[in-house]
Design goal:
membrane, transmembrane helix, transmembrane, ABC transporter permease, 2 domains
Length: 305
């Protein structure tokens, strides 16, 4: 491999981002029998593929004459990239775009032994076969053309990445908001249970079992409010003024959190919806239920169209 200019490095990066998008989208489209615009960004580029390809080229440069060391360098370099990228994205966005938790010998779901082994072979394939052909094609293109194309694509990718990054941060805030609303509803339910226990309403006590699903939690809260409303009508003197005021205040809080949830679930942003549709395997350790709810919302809107 030759020493490349900054423009050539960027051109190679964009080429492999584009190639990775074609590969990934085609594979998923065949698997799901429908087109899926894969990736973090909305344009036809997957930065993880471009980063991986450039990393393979860089780490293998000192060992071009030794295929074993090229393999080892590829294993270590790609695994480190995958680990750092996975941990950083999860820390920033609260979701994982890939997860190896179901694989043997994995580390926190970000990396696993089988992928590490595969990265080494891919590095050999990349440096010995794929890139040599790509390099010849790029060198055959006039330098001025490569420069103009690279500048134009750079401008496009900067805009796309900026919008995609903002959408991912917005999704993170939505997940946090949905979780906070659920926690507030759980506190409301617990307080209702205390009130119900005090008045010994047997019909409502049977509904005290807990559920991790928000829709079941909301159904339970509304049933408890309904039972208490009936009880107040039948025997208003059973409830002191303070208890009736607290029930009213709890209902008001519940209505606010219910409205918050409806607002969070609307997902008005195109980039937010596209990221969910383009990454169906997206996973969140701490906000799993909220994420699945957003996925269902996107799929329901899609079916209605």
């Amino acid at each position: 491999m030759h020493q490349y200019s900054v423009i050539q490095w960027l051109f190679f990066f964009y080429f492999y981002c584009f190639f990775g998008w074609i590969f990934e989208s085609t594979y998923v489209a065949i698997k799901n029998r429908r087109f899926v615009n894969r990736g973090f960004m909305r344009g036809p580029f997957l930065p993880i593929y471009g980063s991986g390809a450039i990393m393979m080229l860089v780490v293998s440069m000192p060992f071009q004459e030794n295929i074993f060391l090229t393999y080892v360098a590829g294993c270590l370099g790609a695994t480190a990239l995958e680990l750092v990228t996975g941990m950083t994205m999860e820390a920033l966005f609260k979701v994982r775009y890939w997860d190896y938790s179901n694989q043997r010998f994995n580390y926190k779901g970000h990396i696993c032994l089988s992928s590490t082994i595969a990265w080494g072979f891919l590095t050999i394939l990349m440096t010995e076969f794929v890139h040599k052909g790509v390099e010849k094609v790029v060198f055959a293109i006039p330098a001025a053309v490569v420069t103009v194309v690279t500048i134009i694509v750079t401008e496009y990718i900067v805009v796309d990445f900026t919008l995609s990054f903002k959408a991912a941060m917005d999704l993170r805030d939505i997940l946090i908001g949905l979780e906070k609303a659920k926690e507030e509803m759980e506190r409301i339910q617990k307080r209702l249970d205390v009130i119900i226990a005090v008045v010994n309403d047997d019909r409502a006590v049977r509904k005290q079992e807990r559920s991790d699903r928000v829709d079941e939690l909301m159904d339970s809260i509304e049933e408890k409010f309904g039972a208490l409303k009936e009880r107040v009508k039948l025997n208003p003197t059973e409830f002191v003024e303070e208890v009736r005021e607290e029930i009213t205040e709890l209902r008001s809080r519940y209505s606010v959190e219910k409205e918050h949830r409806l607002q969070f679930r609307k997902l008005k942003g195109y980039y937010q919806r596209s990221q969910l549709k383009g990454n169906p395997t997206m996973y969140s350790k701490h906000f799993g239920e909220a994420l699945e709810e957003l996925k269902r919302t996107v799929n329901e809107k899609k079916r209605k169209k």
